[in-house]
């Protein structure tokens, strides 16, 4: 009988010891902030970029990759190569791969709507970056205020040239919200104060910026200022201007490394910085928060800055 009581006592002691193995103050993974996992499942996020032939979007994607790694999420990046139909196909591929969320940098804000709606129909949340979508349901949009950036560029051009100057505007991809908003802000700032003698699309591309600027200079040799909707076009235009032996004020947009160096070297007059790495990081932060069931702001702004010598 005594042996049986002793055995029962030992069992009770062992059970109590097992119950106390969790250390005081220990926390579950759910208490450690946003993580890139849902339990044992790793979040898989797709990022569709308009082009990786532009330093701005390369930096944006690198910011997203860095944040994904820090969060423990898997990020798949695809390059639409500035082709709206390829972007639609890329998004469908990502949906088939079973991504948990899509981050889209639209090539064309209107054309991308069908891709956004396809994701909506598959119950996959969508976040847009830099350029918005004209339709479909989007959880959040992360971007600088492109219109405000256009205003900054216009005001600085006026400061450098004064009123009544003859200027040209190199426009981005037709249909993209960035081109529309930057152009709108610029024109709002200079309306009635300068003479915009030429407006032409160069599709956010440096080589096209060079060719378009060569043509504009032939038709309008009196131009003294240029606003380009991005740095790639601005640098292409600058090359054409230098080849023609002219001294023309050129302002770009994006603050890519090449453009900032050109400003420091006294070649490009200015560029508008909109911090692509931060856009990429904020997009991933919003993605992880949304997948963890947290509320995310519909619009997340990223600060602008005028970069000048």
TrEMBL record:
Keywords: Signal
Any Pfam family matching the protein: Peripla_BP_4
Keyword presence, Transmembrane helix: no
GO cellular component, one term: cell envelope
Signal sequence range: 1-17
Residue ranges of domain Periplasmic binding protein in the record: 45-295
GO molecular function, one term: carbohydrate binding
Lineage: superkingdom: Bacteria
Localization of this protein: Cell envelope
Principal localisation: other
PANTHER family per record: D-ALLOSE-BINDING PERIPLASMIC PROTEIN-RELATED
NCBIfam families: PRK10653.1
UniProt similarity note: Belongs to the bacterial solute-binding protein 2 family.
Protein name: Ribose ABC superfamily ATP binding cassette transporter, binding protein
């Amino acid at each position: 009988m005594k042996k049986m009581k002793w055995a029962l006592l030992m069992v009770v002691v062992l059970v109590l010891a097992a119950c106390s193995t969790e250390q005081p103050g220990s926390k579950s993974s759910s208490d450690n902030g946003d993580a890139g996992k849902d339990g044992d499942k790793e979040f898989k996020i797709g990022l569709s970029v308009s082009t990786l032939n532009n330093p701005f979007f390369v930096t944006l994607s690198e910011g997203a990759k860095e944040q994904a790694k820090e969060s423990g999420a898997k990020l798949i990046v695809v390059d639409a190569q500035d082709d709206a139909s390829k972007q639609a196909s890329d998004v469908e591929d990502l949906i088939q791969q079973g991504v948990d969320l899509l981050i889209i940098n639209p090539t064309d804000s209107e054309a991308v709507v069908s891709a956004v709606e396809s994701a909506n129909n598959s119950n996959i949340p969508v976040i847009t970056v830099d350029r918005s979508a004209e339709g479909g349901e989007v959880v959040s949009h992360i971007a600088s205020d492109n219109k405000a950036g256009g205003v900054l560029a216009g005001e600085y051009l006026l400061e450098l040239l004064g009123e009544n100057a003859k200027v040209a505007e190199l426009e981005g991809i037709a249909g993209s919200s960035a081109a529309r908003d930057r152009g709108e802000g610029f024109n709002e700032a200079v309306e009635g104060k300068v003479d915009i003698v030429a407006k032409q699309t160069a599709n956010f591309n440096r080589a096209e910026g060079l060719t378009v600027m060569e043509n504009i200079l032939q038709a309008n040799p009196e131009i003294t200022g240029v606003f380009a909707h991005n740095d790639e076009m601005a640098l292409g235009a600058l090359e054409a201007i230098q080849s023609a032996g002219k001294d023309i004020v050129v302002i770009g947009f994006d603050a890519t490394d090449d453009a900032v160096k050109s400003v420091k070297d006294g070649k490009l007059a200015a560029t508008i910085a909109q911090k692509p790495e931060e856009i990429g990081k904020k997009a991933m932060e919003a993605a992880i928060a949304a997948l963890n069931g947290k509320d995310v702001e519909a619009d997340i702004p990223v600060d602008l800055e005028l970069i000048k010598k």
